[in-house]
Amino acid sequence: MKVDGGLGQSPDIEKIAAQARSQEAAGYDAVWTAETSHDPFLPIAVAAGHTERLEFGTGIAVAFARNPMLLANLGWDLQALTKGRFHLGLGTQIKPHITKRFSMEWSKPAARMREMVEAIRAIWNTWENGEPLNHRGEFYQHRLMTPFFEPDKADLEGFGPPKIWLAAVGELMSQTAGEVCDGIICHGFTTEKYLREVTIPNVAKGRERAGKSMDDFMISGPFFVVSGQTDEEIDKAAAATRQQIAFYGSTPAYAKVFELHGWEGLHPELNTLSKKGDWIAMGRLIDDEVLNTFAVVGEPETIAPELKRRYGDVVDRISFYAPGQSDISSWRTVVEALKAS
Question: Is 221 part of any domain?
Answer without folding.
Answer: yes
